[in-house]
Design goal:
The chain has helices at 52-70, 102-109, 114-133, 184-187, 194-210, 220-229, 242-248, 259-269, 299-305, 328-335, and strands at residues 8-9, 13-22, 25-32, 37-44, 80-86, 89-95, 136-137, 146-149, 152-155, 162-163, 174-175, 324-325, 349-350, 362-366, 371-378, 384-392, 396-400, 405-409, 415-419, 422-423, 431-436. It has three domains: 8-95, Phosphorylase Kinase, domain 1, CATH 3.30.200; 102-274 and 285-331, Transferase(Phosphotransferase), domain 1, CATH 1.10.510.10; 349-436, no CATH class. By secondary structure, it is an alpha+beta fold. The strands form six sheets. Strands 1-2-3-4-6-5 form a six-stranded antiparallel β-sheet, covered by helices on one side. Strands 13-17-14-19-20 form a five-stranded antiparallel β-sheet, with no helix packed on it. Helix content is 25%, strand content 24%. Keywords: ATP-binding, Kinase, Membrane, Nucleotide-binding, Transferase, Transmembrane, Transmembrane helix. Residues 265-307 are annotated as: Disordered. Belongs to the protein kinase superfamily. NEK Ser/Thr protein kinase family. NIMA subfamily. It comes from Actinocorallia libanotica.
Length: 439
Amino acid sequence: MTQTEHFVLAKRYRLLHALGHGAMGTVWRAHDELLERDVAIKEIRFPAELDENDRVVFYRRTLREARAPARVRHKSIIEVYDVVQEHARPWIVMELIEAPTLEQHIKEQGPLRPEDAAALGRQLVDALEEAHAAGVLHRDIKPSNVLLAPGRVVLTDFGLAVTNGSSTITKVGTFVGSPAYVAPEVARGEKATPESDLWSLGATLYCAVEGRPPFDYENVMATLSAVLTEDPATSQRAGDLGPIINGLLQRNPKRRLSHARLAERLERASTPKRSASSSTPPEGASVLSSSGLPSRRSGAHRARQGPSNGLRPYLVFGLPVVGVLAVVAVLLVLLGGGEDEPSSTAAPSEGSTPLSAATDVVVVKAKGGECKLTTVVGREGGAAGTVNNVRVLDGQVARYNSVPMDLTVSDGKICQVVINGEAQPAKAGEQTYRDIDRP
């Protein structure tokens, strides 16, 4: 029995036993003697090496962790009940969820089927959309921060979350986050945005179907360097989820799928495709219900029902991630010339026909340099299809007639764009054209 066990916090919360330990503290199962219910309490311990100023910063971060989810009420975001200051440190009281994390499920049951991962992602997108609308960014979405609870998927650990109006409390020269799931712009030291959370969601979905993150190296430096300079290996198990993951793992934040489009595509991808001769999944398959959670046919459900496979339920709340110091500056040096060249997926043609006279829906000509462009061609019902990165060499022309589509060009001065016979403004800098269709 530890010294803290069975201690009554704030004359109300009786600590029962520890559920997990981390570098920054302990998560306890406790009983709220006022409301007669069990809760989870995160005990935050200050690292011994912190000076007084750092302790103030650390305490502010703890309060922010509590306030961020408190600003958003959603079934897929952990609910915070109370924050208590006792024993010279903060304690966060939250709902008790007895369920494995996605990380544990993958380790014990194997990767998810694409439609199961899509159903899980669908719930997380809803939660993120609501959080982002309230000005809350999570900044640390990863499998260990996703709980697979009965009837719901729950996003936990807002220790790195930021809200509109809050100042950053990460020291200059410090990287905080999970390297395998952090967005490239955040790894470069830039300000996090809602698109940064969507990148992390894409990396989490990649891990859900592949069993590993898209960038999986043994040390932090190598992982962050890959995030900044490499394209992830193509998923071999993603199926219809593959284009969605690719649409999220775009190094340029402006090219990532939006909340609305992402939600629609995940909804479609979460619908199982069954043959006419079979209406029952094979025995032992990892099946998630339409809510995105382990169903009664899945191994994860059987693990929760009894000890037949030697597993038992887990309750894990992520503890704040330890900062990895002094890597951002080194990584900027590693970048060299910036992004990798996008792969050519079109066959641009030479031609002297005036662009305005072309009958094609979209015509892009490179003049004065190499034009880089990204196309997202839609499918029936408005769902986006394949994301293509294209290079158009100086003097060449790329033509498109598959619509609807979105188009992003690297530079409006170099990339001369004509849509339905109408020349687009030649403005320097990246330009995006949305929902292109026939006239």
